Amino acid sequence: MEAASPETVGSGRPEPVLLTEPADGVPPVVNSPDALAAAADALAAGTGPVAVDTERASGYRYSQRAYLVQLRREGAGTVLVDPIALDGELGPLVAALADTEWVLHAASQDLPCLAELDLRPARLFDTELAGRLAGFERVSLGALVERMLGYQLEKGHSAADWSRRPLPEDWLVYAALDVELLIHLRDAMHDELQQQGKLDWAHEEFEAARTAEPAPPRAEPWRRTSGIHKVRSTRQLAAVRALWQTRDEFARERDLAPGRVLPDSSIIAAAQANPRNEADLVAMPVFGGRHQRRRASMWLQALRSARRLDNSELPAASSTNEGPPPTNRWSDRDPAAAARLQAARSGLTAIAEENGLPLENLLLPDLVRRTCWLPPEDRSVAGVAELLRDKGAREWQIGLTAQALSEALHATPEEA
């Protein structure tokens, strides 16, 4: 499929062509071993890269497993696979796709759930990352397809409950369209990056995304409860922790999104009100609902366990932060570090603008902050380059930033 040739509207901008159906129609969902084997044979016989996407049930389920896997390859067409019906056994696909380049949009969102199915790309092209490196302000799939190919994707069901069975036909249309143009978008973005002289940068970024290790679990994930800043005492923090942990265990066992079990706002309200009995608890908003009334004893038990804690068992008033403090405190706590950070931001911003890059893609802001707060003993260009490499920066990033960051690390408050 070639890029659309839309007519020009009055403003002078081309009007995108609305894409509402896959060109070849919606294929039947692959939900049996025989159908999977046939689909895998078709994909193996295809040519060129394979477009890959998944649909999860975020907001409905605790897990981030894939409830649908979409693939498309030249010569094979589109394949929609139901990994739930296949009990996650997608061995034929693993073999069929072993040596192909995979094209994904925002790959970091899909790769973990694909890895759960033993699906791992040998090579990767991420169209969202490509858009960021190209300096585009809007990098959603729809925005890039419209800009690069002249098509408009019909807004669909990304936030739907994809664990539902059977999947409605209009959902399958949406899912198929997500991979319909992905290979063509890949080719257009490849040419754009090559024209900008950024293709080698992109290959480094794609490889980093492909091989990225899962983030380690947070030490105290309950501290991310929305509204926790309203909680003033450590005893109330203990109640938040107890309710959060109870909710998390309940949600994990039933594969329900925690927010559907009990909203964060209700956890905060209960921790502040500290109800002593079921009547007090169910009198509160949300807790009086039918489902929450059945769980009232569970929530009360969590609150009682927090009340029984010895003072030495209460959580600290704030989390232990191994990193630097908030930057708005640097001037008071360490003026030299504040001067280094100001100089680094100034230098890196200039480099990002010169190269048409988002600042956060030039170098991770957290890495910049940590380096400025506790600079290496060797602040030379070579020393900074070694530090950046050790922290996972790519060679293209090091080549662009090591000199400026080295200079910034020599800045003093008098120069700020």
UniProtKB/TrEMBL annotation:
It comes from the Bacteria. Residues 233-313 form the HRDC domain. Pfam families: DNA_pol_A_exo1 (PF01612), DNA_pol_A_exoN (PF18305), HRDC (PF00570). Residues 1-24, 310-334 are annotated as: Disordered. SUPFAM superfamilies: HRDC-like, Ribonuclease H-like. Gene3D superfamilies: HRDC domain, Ribonuclease H-like superfamily/Ribonuclease H. It comes from Saccharopolyspora halophila. This is Ribonuclease D. InterPro entries: 3'-5'_exonuclease_dom, Exo_C, HRDC-like_sf, HRDC_dom, HRDC_dom_sf, RNase_D-like, RNaseH-like_sf, RNaseH_sf.
